Structures
1.
Amino acid sequence: MRPSRAALSHEPDTSVADWFVGADAPAQVLAVQGPPGYDAYATVHFDGAGDTAAGTGYRSDPALVALVTRLCANHTATPDDVVYGLWEGWGEIDGGDARLLGVDVRYRVLPRLFRPHPGPATPAAFEPRVVDAPRVDLGGLRSYLLFRGSLAQVGEWGARPLAPGWPRTLPQASLTWPADRAWFIASDVDPSWFTVAGSRELIDLLLGRTDLVVSVARYGDPKEPT
């Protein structure tokens, strides 16, 4: 069993994302490629049929994003102060009188498939002070809850279990950036890939990894990489 780590802390101050929300790019581009102005951009394929890096085996979306996020550790001066944005649209976050029936393990195909069920309502993933807190609004296209912590805590949301003995697994962050903004990771809901923005050194590092399927991206032209 993996040893437990301290959970990320909820970040109630949405103004820490103002620089991103107010960046000079359409919301549709910001959601999938992050803000403009970085030296280089790359798209990283999620694992799937026919495009998994040789010898790696299948990795879930959260696992792959966590791997790449940790690879960025040496490319920021603030690895212990990182902001994570969790998309509000995952149905488990708010809970309610429906329960999750099925979700593609990569969290893309069926993000919200529910059916009514008898008994207690599904609890929200977080306590009310988190669920009811202000959320970052990206031009009405996406909204995010913010969390903060170190790179070592990536994916440690601290979510409540669905029921006793039934842990709750949440997807990867849709937005990730260190406090010094040295790089940015955007993992939106629909694409079968995510974007890393940063220095040319960082992007060259990712391009050289044999355990990743990576291609150079052109900012402002978010499309399926070839």
Note: Residues 61-71 form the longest helix (11 residues).
2.
Amino acid sequence: MTPDTLPIFLADDKPLSGAPGGQLILAALLGIATVVLLIVWAKFHPFIGLILGTAVLGAVAAIPPGDVVASFVEGLGTTFGSVGLLIALGAMLGKLLADSGGANQIVDRIIRRVGRKTLPWAMALIAAIIGLPMFFEIGLVILAPIILLVAKRTGVSLMKVGIPALAGLSILHGLVPPHPGPETAINLLHAPLSYTLAFGLIIAVPTLAIAGPLLAPFMDRLVPVVVGDDGEDKSTSDDGDGLTQEQRDAGAKHRPSFIGAILSVTLPVLLMLVRAIGDLTMSEGGTGRGVVDFIGDPSVALLAGVLVAMVAVGWASGMPRAQIHRSLGSGLPGPASIMLIVAAGGGFKTVLSDSGIAGIIGDYATKTHISVLLLGWLVAVAIRLATGSATVATVTAAGIVAPLGATLDQPHLALLVLAIGAGSLFFSHVNDAGFWLVKEYFGLTVGQTIKSWSVMETVISVVALVCALIIGAVV
């Protein structure tokens, strides 16, 4: 579930390993098992565990050590460059919103307008709207502080609030263009954008309901996590300004307006939505397309959100200019560990991809004789499990079934794109950078993350496939 790049093979674009398929699959399984055992049983830091798991993978796959290091560093650097900047800017924005009282203002409005029973549905809807134009990671870094504060202030468990929000972000990222997975599959399969977008939104509604608010109570029984001791924010005093003592210590004199706070959060969303619309309606190479592509770039959009927040919630809350900058800087140390873990997950994923295992899985899949939609889903599932990359799974699966897609009409070709997208979301685990983002942001153990996030992703994948098959039987 990450805005990852396609696998970058070294040298002459050939897989790093010449080992037979069975050995490559064994290497992938042992590499993943090493990561899990080191982190869960031996209590290694995830960053070290991922490095050692990569070493085991490379050794079993008979990849030259130098190539393992080069591929890992390539993936680590690429992931850090794309995701690390977003985490840093998102952390700065979240910290300023917290210190100024802006986050409290947003949460109070949500709590006043939505009851406890409908809160999961509201969080799912908010996440889906935010997730429409942006990558999963960006939506997560923006929403995470809000999710945690809502859970704390209402006393509702983290799973009941967080699972619907995560589902909303994930479903839109995997099924609805112009997100990179479905958009790339559309291009590879020459599928119609109109049908893909329409069917994607139709499938997203029941999938979000089932994998979000309806699934959340079951997740709460598996992983009962409560933020804080109870539903009250005990650090809020009765001085009438609605600020906590920590916010006063940070220099805030009063809460910023709700409009200013919500603008700071939604501005990146709006800018990326403008880019998404421009990509669909403007021709490439034009000045207008260049402008919207720039302002809607995730890093530029988040930077704009930070700059607006400096005025709309920092200055508006009475914080001195120097304190605003101190608040922004103080948001960085905590997420530094998250950046390293996510980057190492990207390195592990890249070695898996570069080893050639995706091609082996593709060869196996093409020898089967089943429904094209189900075949596309199964290929994407297998590559997703092996490489951890939703985008690699989508692109590889689309390439494998492309010849079969030529026999389909336009509606079923669009459904094939969505079936592949659904498969690319299946059971995110330790080789997916998104797994580590969820784990670290919500303070979960590896086991808790598997029982909540990984299971939720699997439910999304299966429900979306079933919906695609039902639509395919009707149209």
Note: Residues 25 and 357 are 7 Å apart (CA to CA).
